[in-house]
Design goal:
Blueprint lengths: L1 H25 L4 H175 L7 E6 L2 E5 L5 E4 L5 E3 L3
Antiparallel strand pairs: 1-2, 2-3, 3-4
Helix pairs in contact: 1-2
């Protein structure tokens, strides 16, 4: 607004200066030109005043609008500054949190790295162990092949021995069967002898004692001859049964 007033003032001054110059130049001419110049000067002054007033009013309005806009912008700036401060505080918190997380991540990474190193070492140890086991397995396979050859030889020998043993067993089985048969026959004979002996024992258990001599046999019984020439045998009751002549 001050600039606008200043411009108006300069405009008025310049017009005034111009009017004075023209008046001085035209003093030598005619009075009419002087009057015309004076009228023009007054009109210009009046128009300038009106223009200045309008410009002043407009400037005041612009100033008010600018002030309102400035206040709004100031409020916005304050709000933005507050938001910036809040953002700064949030950023600082986030930075602190990020630093803490970074430290923790670093510690975790170091732990994981140590674990990984242990795993690699264990893998190397396992590889060495596996190589040893492989060598041992190859040695065992070779020994197994040797054992297989030995086993095949032993199997052939065992088959031969088995055949010989089978033949021998068959012979021994035949002998055993023959011996069993003989034993059964012997047992049958022994049973018969035992039965006969039992029968004779039972028969002779209660035999009357006699001094007569045995002179023969009658129906499986011993025959005795008495002093008078009579013949008899001892029956199942232990009594003498004489044989009719």
């Amino acid at each position: 607004m001050k600039k606008l007033v200043l411009l108006s003032f300069l405009f008025i001054v310049s017009n005034t200066f111009y009017g004075q110059t023209a008046q001085t130049a035209e003093k030598t001419t005619t009075e009419k030109a002087t009057k015309t110049t004076k009228a023009t000067k007054e009109k210009v002054a009046k128009d300038s005043k009106t223009t200045a007033e309008k410009a002043s009013t407009k400037a005041e309005k612009v100033a008010k609008d600018s002030k309102a806009t400035a206040e709004k912008e100031s409020a916005k700036a304050e709000k933005a500054a507050k938001a910036a401060n809040d953002s700064k505080a949030t950023a600082e918190k986030a930075s602190t949190k990020a630093e803490k997380a970074a430290k923790e991540s670093k510690a975790t990474a170091e732990k994981e790295s140590a674990k990984a190193e242990k795993v690699v070492k264990a893998a190397n140890d396992s590889k060495a162990t596996a190589e040893k086991a492989s060598a041992k397995a190859e040695k065992a396979a070779k020994a197994a092949n040797d054992s297989k050859a030995t086993a095949e030889k032993a199997s052939a020998k065992a088959e031969k021995a088995a055949k010989e043993s089978k033949a021998t067993a068959e012979k021994e089985s035949a002998k055993a069967e023959k011996a069993v048969k003989a034993a059964n026959n012997s047992k049958a004979t022994a049973d018969k002898a035992t039965a006969k002996a039992v029968k004779e024992t039972k028969t002779t258990k209660d035999v009357v004692k006699t001094a007569d001599k045995v002179t023969g046999e009658y129906n499986g019984k011993k025959v005795y001859t008495g002093p008078k020439g009579g013949t008899y045998y001892i029956n199942s009751n232990g009594n003498k049964t004489y044989i009719k002549q």
